[in-house]
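Quick board copy: two proteins, each given as sequence then C-alpha cells.
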Amino acid sequence: MKDNNQSPKLDRMKYLVELLNEASRAYYAQDTEIMSNLEYDTLYDELLSLEQETGVVFANSPTAKVGYEVVDELPKEAHPSPMLSLDKTKSREELREWLQGKIGVLSWKLDGLTIVLTYQDGKLVKALTRGNGEVGEIVTGNAKTFVNLPMTIPFQGELVLRGEAVISYSDFEKINARIEDVDAKYKNPRNLCSGSVRQLDAKVAAGRSIRFYAFSMETAEQSAFATRSDQMDFLTAQGFEVVEHFRVTEDTIWDCMDEFARKIETYDIPSDGLVLTYDDIAYGISLGRTAKFPRHSIAFKWADEKKETILKEIEWSASRTGLINPVAIFDPVELEGTTVSRASVHNVSILEGLRLGIGDRITVYKANMIIPQIAENLTGSGTVEIPAHCPVCGGDTQIKQVSDVKSLYCINEECPAKKIKAFTLFVSRNAMNMEGLSEATLEKFIELGYLHEFADLFRLDRYKEQIVSLEGFGEKSYHNLIESVEQARNTTLPRLVYALGIGGIGVANAKMLCKHFHHDFGAMRSADVEELSAIEGVGEVIATTFVEYMKHPANQDVMDHLLEEVNIEIPVVEEGSQTLDGMNFVITGSLVHFENRDQLKEQIEQKGGKVTGSVTSKTTCLINNDVTSSSSKNKKAKELGVPIFSEEDFLEKYLN
C-alpha cells in the first residue's frame, strides 16, 4: 500500500508550507518581503497542485484556513476498547528474550500526550485524548492546530490511529525564552504539551508548536496489513510523521538499542524509553492481554546510570515570590557523558523524604538521561536543618504547605533576592520594556544604592558619573540606557499593572482588568475583593492577592512615586462609538462570522460592551447559534428571561 513516489512529494510539500508561512510572517508581521508576489503565487500554486495530487493537506498549510475553536468544556467520550498501559522492563536481556525468536519493531517511547485520531473519507473528524484509558476528552479543535498533522489524507474510508502529541525541546526553549519572569517559565515540555492540548481555546494550542507522531493503527476499512512495518509505511504515505522505528531480531536488538542510546543525548523530542512490538500483527493479537497490559508490546525504560557520591551541602536558592528551593551540592561525578555536581531537591517535602544530611552517601542519576536527580540516600542521617533565616537577606522564613507539599518561603518583603527579581520583571519586554538593564546590572545598581523602588529607575541620571565609570559601562552605554528609560516613561496602564509583579496578574489579566475599569487606575486601586472576583477570569484567590497588594502602605508609596514619573496613555474612544456601553453579553458555541470568540468579544468591547462567562440577571443577551439547544447556558437564560440571539440576529441588532 506504500506509494514509493509519495515521500519526495510530501517532503517538497512540507518545505513549501514552511517557506510560504515564513514569507507570510515576514510580510504581515514584520513588514518585510523575502519573496515577490509572483514567486509566492507560483509556490502557492505548486503546493496546491501537490495537495490535490497526493490528497494530503497539512494543518499549517497556507491553503488550509482553519478557525480556532473555543469550547466551554472538553466533552468526553468512551474509547471503543480500553487503552491499556504497557508492561515495562529495564533489562536488556529480558527485552531480547521477550522476542522469542520473532521479528519486532523497536521505536521511541515519546513523552507527551497520547491522542487517538479518526479520519472519515480522508477528513479528520475526531481527536480523543487517552484520558483514564476508559474515557478520553475530545480535542479535535486543538488537534487541527498541530503543526505537522494532515487535515486531509488520500485514504477513503475510516482510519483510526494512535500517536503522541509532543513539544520538542527546542520549541519549548523558544516558548520559555518569550517569558521574562523566571518564576513563570514552564517546567518541562511534557506538562506544557498536555496542558496545551487540553485547552478550551484552540488559539492557545496553536501557539505552542505541538507536533504529532503516529505509532499504531487501530482500524482501516478496506485495508489489511500483515505487519506493523507495513502499517507505518502506509501512515507515512498518508502524510503522517511516524515515530522513528526499526525492525529487529534477537541478534540485532542490542545494537539498535545502543543506537537509540547514542541518539537520545541530542534527540529533540522528549522520550522516556523505547517500545518493542511484535511485527506480525496477527501473532501479537493472538497473545491476548492481561488485566493491565496487552501482550503484543512491552516498554523499555532506560536503566539510569547511577553513581555514588557524598553530599557536601544544601544550597538554598531564593526567587521573586519568596520561594526558597533546596539544591544539593555533591562531589562531582560523571553521568551520561557529563560531569554533574548539583541537583535540585525541589521542596522541603522531598528533602525530608530523602532524610538528607551533610556527609551522607547518596546515589545520583539523570532523569531521562538529562536532569540530575538524587535517587537514594544510603546514609539517611536526616540532619539537614531547614534555615530559619533567608540566605539572601537574613530575614525570617516560613514553611507553607499547599496540596500536601511543604515549601520554604522568605517572608521579608525587603529581601534583595525578591527586589532583584521584581526589578527584572519590571524592566522586561512585556512590562516597561527598558533595554540595557540585565539582572546582573540591576543587582549592581541595587547594591550601590541607586535603586530602592521602581521610580528610582527614572532617576538614574542622578548617578551619571558613577555609572559611566562602572566596568562594562561608558558614555554610549549610559546614553542608550537613559534613552530607553525615557521612552518607557510613556506607557500604557496594562504594562504598568503587569510590571508591578502582583501575584497571578500576567499580561492577559492586566489587560482584562484595565478594560474592566476603563483604564482608571484609581478605580482599580480602590476595588474590593467582591468586585474583582466578579470579573471573568479573576476569581477570589487572585482578587484577594490584588487587593492585599493595593492596600499595603509600602506598595501604595511605590505606586504613588511611580505615577509621578510616568505618563499613562489612555486609549482614545471615538465619540458615539460606545453603543454597547452598560450591556453585558455571554458567547457560547461555535461562530460563523468570526474565527473565534475573542474576535467577537473584541468588537463588543470596542463598542463599550462587556463579555462575561456566565449568564446572570444582568446579561443583556446570550449569543448562541444553537438557540434551541439544552445547554446549561441556554437553560439559565430561559430561567432568567434573558434573550438568546443567534450570531446573525446579534450582528443585525447590535453591531450594524
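And the next:
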Amino acid sequence: MKAIESSLKGIIEGEPHRLEVPFFQRKYVWKEENWQELLEALSNFKEERVFWGSIIIKKISEMNPTDKYSRGYIVDGQQRLTTIALLTKAIYDTLTDEENGEKRAKRVVENYIFFPPVSTALFEEGEYELIIEHSRVDKEEFEAIMKAGLCGEKTLDIEYREDMSGGQIQKCYAYFRKKLKGISNEELLQMNNSLYGDEKVFVYILLDENDINEQVIFDSINRAGQKLFSSDIIKNNLFKKMMDLKMEADEVEKLCDKYWDGIFWTNDEEENIWDQQRQFGNIRKSHLDFLLYCVACIEWTEVEVKKINERLEQVYMEQTANYSMDEMRKLVKKIAVLALIYKRYIMDFGKDIEEECFSNEDVVKRLLLIMDKFKIQMFYPYVLKLLYDKVNKCDVMKQEIECDIDDIELKEKCFTLETYLMRRRICGVGTSTYSKECSQILKSNVKALIASMSDEEIEEEDKKILQQIKCLKQSEVPKMVLFCIELTKWNKNDDIGQLQYGYQLEHIMPQKWEEHWNLKGEENTFENKEKRKNAIYEIGNMLLLSQKLNGQIQNREFVVKVEGEEKIGKGGRKSKREGYRARTQLKLTKEIIDKYDAGDKLWDEEHIQKRTEKIGKDILKHWSARQIKYS
C-alpha cells in the first residue's frame, strides 16, 4: 500500500491508466447538495486550502492481451471522480468557440477524460478510451454524456429539473450545464485550471492487488463521501470470482440482478433498508453487512467468529477461493433466501412488534420477540439457519418467503434457546459470550447450552432466579416475564387466544408510595420503610395493563386503584377514572381482582412476597433447565 498527497492531475497522469468502477459496484448517488459543494469549493479555490477526500485504487493484475494500458479498481472515490468528470465535460460543452479556449479545453478533455495514446484521434473518426470506466449500472449513461459531441457522437441538449427523468449521472451533468450558463470563457477555464492544477487536494492510496483490507483502510482515512460497506467489497469479489471462473457475463449479470440487486438495491438510497444501521453488541453494522456476517457464521463454522466479525470480506474471499462455479451459484442463492428470511422474520417483525399477536404455541415468534426487545443479536445466525431449514415456499423474484414456524422440531429448538436466554437475562448475566456460543450450537445442537450444566449449577441458577425476581428495576425484564407466564395460562378454549405485547408495566404498590401508602404509628420505622421500598420492585408487585392508569389514581390507595374513582367536573358532570377492575383481561390481573372480591382488600409486603413466590414457581416450571437437560 502507498498513500500520498496528490493532485487530481497526478492521479490521472500516473498508473493505472484506466480507473474502473468495479463491475458490480453500486450506482452513482450524489445529489444536488454534493454538486453545489464542489462548485463552491472551486469558487473559493484560491482563498482556501481545499481537501477533497481520499481516492483508493486497487491494482488489477490481469490484462487483456490486446490492451496496452494498466487498470485499477476504484475502491473509494467513485462519486467524486465521476462528478469531476461530468463537471469537466459540462465546462467543455459550455465554452464558446473562441480558438484559445477551445484548444485549452481540448487538451484537458484529451488528457484527463480520455487517455493517450489512443485519444489522439479524439476529434476524428477513430478509437478512444475513457479514463473512468463505470460499472454496468451506470456505464451506458456515463459514456453517452462523456462522448456526446465527440468523434461523430450526437450532442446532448438536457435541461435540468429536480423532477427530471433519468439517472443521477444525467441529472448531475444537466445541473452543471444550468449552473455554468452565462459564465465567461475565462472563468470556465479558470475552473478547469483549478480542477487539474498542481494543488494536492486528495489523499491517494494505491493498493497492491493482494491487499484485501480495503474497508479497514477506507474507515481509517475517509470521514466523508459515500460510506463503504463490507458488503460492497464482498459483492464485487463474489461476482468477479464468477467471471474469473469463465462464467458468461450475461449469466453473471442475471445472477446478480436476481439474487443481489433485485433484493438489496433501490433507486432511493435514503430508503434502502439494507443500508440502514443497527446496533450489534458494541458496534454498528448495516443490515446487509450483518446478514452477510450471519451467512458466514452458518456456512463456515470452522472459522473463528472474531475473525468473521472483524474481517468479513477477507473471510468471504478466503473461503470461496476454491469454490466451483456451481458452489458460487449456490452461495449467492443462499444469501438471497436468507435475506428474505431476515427481512420478514427480523426486520419486518421488529417494525410491527407491538401489533403482533402471540399465543402460547407461537414459540418461534416469542423467541424473536425476546431477542428483539432484549437486543440479543448474536444468536440470529442460528435462528436464521433454523428457519432456512424449514422453508416451505420461496419466490426470490417476488421476494416472498414462508417458513414452517409450527414445525415441532423447530419449536423445540427455539424454546430451548428461549429458556437459556430468559434464565440468563433474569439472572443479569452478560451477553459477551453469545457470539461464541452461537458458533458452537451451529456446529452441534442448541441443547448443549443447557446440557453442559451440572445439576448443581442448574440448582444454583434456579436459586439466583428466585432471588433476582425480588429486585427488578428495569421494566423490560419483568414485563417480558409476566407476558410469557401469562401466555402459559391461555389456550385455544379461551375467548381470546392471542395477546399483543403492547402492555404497560404497573406497580401495584406505587413507586411514589409515601402519601397514600404511608406507614403509621409504630410501623413507621426506618427498617419498615426500606422493606417497603424493596417490595415495590418484586415481581409480585407488578402486573400488566392494556393502558396506564389515570395519573390521578396511579399512586392512590389499593382500593382506588382496583375500583377506580368517579370525578365530578364542571357543571356537575361525572366521569370515571378506571381502575384494575375495568382492565381484567389478563388472568394474572384477574387473580388479584378475584381475591379482592372475595374480601381480601389489603395489599402489603406479605401479599407481594406470596405472589412473588407463586410467580417464581411458574418461572422455574416454564423455563425448566432440568427438564430440557433430561428430555
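Board note added afterward: The longest helix spans residues 325-351.
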